[in-house]
Write a structure and sequence with these properties.
Blueprint: H1 7-11, H2 48-93, H3 99-118, H4 122-125, H5 129-132, H6 141-157
Helix pairs in contact: 2-3, 2-6, 3-6
Length: 162
């Protein structure tokens, strides 16, 4: 069923005034400029209520993805503190006492927390590629990878005898 240009965009109008384009509920294809209510990518017939529902889901996912950089940054700092605690506990462990056990335990806990926060980056990967370009604060891939690697290494090192 042919529609006049811009009909899909008008179907997607919603209250929160986002500039996100309408997308196919089945495959996530960007429907901006579509001339029919059939997705050109997968052939799915698009209904206005589905477009609004998918737009709301995408909006919520994008808001969580915007927070990912902050969480990854916190995770990196926690992992660095854990690395310092692990090293200090190991150095003090040469003198005996409970410092090495406490340092390893705190290092492992900090590594676990850092890993969980670093994996917040996965939220960004769930977005369609075109939606990632719409983010105000684009993801910091390097910081996310550094946080995940440092945290995982910290967790492993907490159990290795030096």
């Amino acid at each position: 069923m042919p529609l006049e240009p811009g009909h899909i965009e008008r179907m997607a109008e919603y209250d929160w005034q986002s500039n996100l384009p309408p997308m196919c509920p089945k495959c996530g294809y960007n429907l901006r400029g579509a001339t029919t209510n059939r997705c050109p990518e997968c052939g799915y017939i698009v209904l206005s209520k589905e477009i609004k529902r998918e737009a709301a889901k995408l909006q919520a996912l994008m808001q969580r993805a915007e927070e990912a950089n902050d969480l990854v940054g916190i995770g990196f700092k926690v992992a660095l503190v854990g690395a310092v605690l692990l090293v200090v506990g190991t150095v003090l462990g040469t003198q005996g006492g409970t410092a090495p056990i406490l340092g390893r335990l705190l290092g492992f806990i900090a590594g676990f927390i850092g890993l969980c926060l670093g994996l917040a980056y996965v939220r960004v990967l769930r977005l369609p590629h075109w939606a990632r370009d719409e983010l105000k604060n684009p993801p910091n891939n390097g910081l996310a990878i550094a946080t995940i690697v440092l945290s995982a290494a910290l967790m492993v090192l907490a159990f290795v005898n030096w």
